[in-house]
Amino acid sequence: MTPHADTTDERLVDPTAYRPAPVVASQDTQVGTELEPVVKRVTLDKTRLYQGWPAARNRHTDYVAAQATGLREPNVSGGQTAEYLGQMFLRFFGPGFVGGRLAVSFLGFVNLDDEVTVRGTVTDRAESDGGRVWLEIRMTAQTQDGRTVLAGTGSGFVPE
Q: Could you report the per-residue pLDDT of 38-81, keeping only the tens digit for each?
């Protein structure tokens, strides 16, 4: 008898697999709706993977390079932090979403081992002549100690 993997075992579930968010954009979404937060613990390994280590040796992946720029240790790139906003945005609008806008401002450093929480709130809602719903979202990323490291807006049509 060949043993089979128990697919209910959490150790066998792909942590990168798409899972729908419990709060998703719909025709009925109203101003004030809060998106499901995304929480990420940043590690050197994750930062190196994002940057393309070992080919990419820079202030985000390498202690020597970071210290040469005046930093004590590598810090997380703004692009990696912005990706957390993008993850929340895509989970809210759905996997097939295209055609939205995302604009961000980088307000501070994310350090190794920081826990970053990304939050979003619907701030505006409009209907087009064709009945499509357009949502505006205010988003922020904060570290565990309350520092706001990124703020931005996103917008797009609710999928039909």
A: 999 988 888 888 888 888 888 888 889 999 999 998 888 888 88
How far is it between the farthest Cα atoms of the chain? Answer: 62
> How is residue 91 written in tokens?
């989970």
User: For residue 92, what is the domain's CATH number?
Assistant: 3.10.129.10
Residue 6 within a domain: no
Structure tokens that stand for 32 in this block:
């004030």
Count of domains observed in the chain: 1
Q: Which helix (H) or strand (E) holds 90?
A: helix 78-93
Write down the pTM of the prediction: 0.80
For residue 90, the tally of other CB atoms under 10 A from its CB is 18
**Domain interval for residue 123:** 29-157
* Rounded-to-integer distance, Cα 24 and Cα 26, Å: 6
Instruction: Give dist(CA 122, CA 36) in Å, integer.
Output: 12
3-class DSSP assignment, residue 67: helix
At which residue do the structure tokens 């990696």 appear?
A: 80
